[in-house]
Write the structure tokens for this entry.
Amino acid sequence: MQTPSEHAYPDHWEADVVLRDGGTARIRPITVDDADRLVSFYEQVSDESKYYRFFAPYPRLSAKDVHRFTHHDYVDRVGLAATVGGEFIATVRYDRIDETGRPAPAPADEAEVAFLVQDAHQGRGVASALLEHIAAVARERGIRRFAAEVLPANNKMIKVFTDAGYTQKRSFEDGSVRLHLDLEPTDRSLAVQRAREQRAESRSVHRLLAPGSVAVVGTGRTHGGVGRAVLRNLLDAGFTGPVYAVNRSLPEDATELDGVPAFRSVGEIGAPVDLAVVAVPAERVPEAVADCGEHGVQGLVVLSAGYAESGDTEGRRRQRELLRQARSYGMRVIGPNAFGIINTAPDVRLNASLAPQPPAAGRIGLFAQSGAIGIALLAGLHRRGAGLSSFISAGNRVDVSGNDYLQYGYDDPDTDVVLLYLESMGNPRKFTRLARRTAAVKPVVVVRGARHSGSAPPGHRVPATRIPHATVSALLRQAGVIRVDTVTELVDAGLLLAGQPLPDGPRVAVLGNSESLGLLTYDACLTEGLRPLRPLDLTTAATPDDFRRALAKALADPLSDAVVVTAIPWVGENGVTESGEGEVLAAALRSAVASADGPAKPVVVVHVEMGGLAEALSAAASTAPGAAARRQPAPEAGAPPAAAGASSPAVPPTTPAVPTPPAVPTAPTANPPTTPGNIPAYPAAERAVRALAEAVRYAQWRRQSADPGRVPEYEDIDEAGAAALIERLLGDEVDEKGTTLGTDAASELLGRYGIEVLPARPAPSPDAAVAAAARLGYPVALKTTAPHLRHRPDLGGVRLDLATEEQLRAAYAELTETLGKPEELQPVVQAMVPRGVDTVLRAAIDPAVGAVLSFGLAGAPSELLGDTSHRLVPATDRDAAELVRSIRTAPLLFGWRGSAPVDTPALEELLLRLSRLVDDHPEVVAVALEPVVVAPRGVCVLGATVRLAPPPARTDLGPRTLPSY
């Protein structure tokens, strides 16, 4: 039996967590060096809390108690502490017990657990966080159940256990409540954990964006400099709380800077400070952080540079130390190397940034990892009349990230659209989960920078990923994210989504006073997959009133879902452009929108050299409250497209029709807006239509997300048999790099999930090939399996429809003469299968995003053109249907040019079975089925490759933790 000294300190149990109120705490194992901290902690606990813990008056800990509570073997006896500022605020401990309740070593799988939380920190969710972490530790040490004894009056602790979501039993014995918790995670426990994570992380960002008071640390004594600029911007924005200037070099008689109280340290302020903006040189930041932490500051915005963005070792060290120091005091950090933060809420009016001209109040939330891009986005949105609800420039993103902002944006009632400029994703799996939830209630638009560089920007720590950017984009779209490629497209999409309702479908009415501009818009719609109606040409003689009547008619037309208005300047009788035409036209368009009856439709404007039009259109209340409510799309109309104001049919899409997955119920139509929103204007038809197409696709995702489908059950799946086979194949000596299974083992494993691989007989000689064909039956196929020839029919390594022994021998001789010796070619013989479409199905586990299911046509379409679709595992029946239909070459599966449609239901079932295999068994890290021939009836898997390895760690299933740097 091991003694406590033989068990090394488990540093992987250390973690930072966000608490219910948005503050942070450090959770770590208790060690023998914590005796003084434990005694100090206990002295600050009330007599009532001590009574609840020990069931009797227990005013102080004895030396024996202190020894017992600080000496652990980290297996049968474990203690964890939550700390802030290096001091204990709560503890939890378990002791392994047997069935009689007495201390016992492993393999006993039950433990008694007990908590103690300092009274000043009760209600912050500390005990709930500790329970998650001690449960994870217990599972790691082979403990499956917790037992806890609680006094009936201790309602808070009873609630901690009962609300955790674990399967539990409860009884009343000898005047106390006896609880037994099964520690195996359940759907409910995971949902509880994620709901708590969402509330805590959202609150932590809210504390940063809505502080009660702000101190600018590093305010220069003279005008100019970063600190002085931030102070000036805070005052100009009209921040509603107290503002303080801090400069350690202030003369003793200096009491003000720019009219605000000035101090040499945060400690001298003598009043609460919620947020500190740090603008001192990097070497002085630790001193400033300590000053803030010791005096209760809740969060930091670090503008200082000189950290990991410099790319050197010293910069990275400084960045790690900044995060460690800030979290030790329970503070969250934006930055370093940040541009600042903005909150335009009227009860806050915070501009703690370097932006001299804050944006107007609006309904767009903006997060940027780059200060330069943040400046450009702020300027672009301001120039086009868009207002913001909040803005964060994260700089090096050492702490607060895009994931945190998504948590905040989901909750924030003042934000209708979330725009994100990201250069890296610290936790892509979590980002996808959060984005899906947020996108279900409001649009999330993302542009990725540094996506082709192959590495993260300096200062950003991200997990390695093996999947290409196109795959990541496809997975984000699956989660409802609107993916754009440029910051211009980010602004274009944000303007439309913030000011206009979502379209009910893809039918677009086009009207304007330029036939050529109308045709350009029409072509752009077809390019983006929309269904434009025949453009309505109002002629160059059209007046603003003509525009108003035409727009009103298009909005009332049940055969259109959106309207694009095109406009060029009109010329007066004297041959010169009339002045003020932009303002007059804008008024006419807004009037038409305001008076429209029926379902709300988005309206966008394409203008060429129309002076004042864009500014006049943006003058409306851009994103009035309630915009989110009117964004719920109505059911897509089923009527055929027709021209607005004309009887001729619309031109059909140019691509062959592909059957869509079964329709799903849609949510009821939301009420139309009571006031006109900001009508977005674009200087090019392509930009306007691209933004509109993104809105159409997002609206369709919203309708479908109401019923995401189900993961079907198949009675012939042998999950237990597959698990036993995998355990045997991996063996005791597990290679961390994994192992690729042989043909027979791969076929056996796949067969456990109902995936039958067509047998292939080795043919090392002509006689062996003939013998194999005799067993399989003619006709047969002869093909090479050498790695450099596999799946390369263009190299001539496959011979089909060999109906006789003579044909087989001739084909064998031709292959070996042309391509090489049999031992180099590794030829095999397979029975012929019905003709069909060759496809490829793959599943792989990526360490960053999780298990990914992929589909494409075999050969050039997927390998050369990258025509592949992707979905996260586990895939639902709807996911499988969309996988098959979303590739560009999908028409080949559905009867293109008169060919026979293939058996797509059988193909979808194969995809679902493959998804189940990798979801049930994370040791299956890669599977490739190629080729899979999809015939008019049935599918045939002709080749399969399976790779097993120890499963990568699942960061999304453990207890809540903040990322470490």
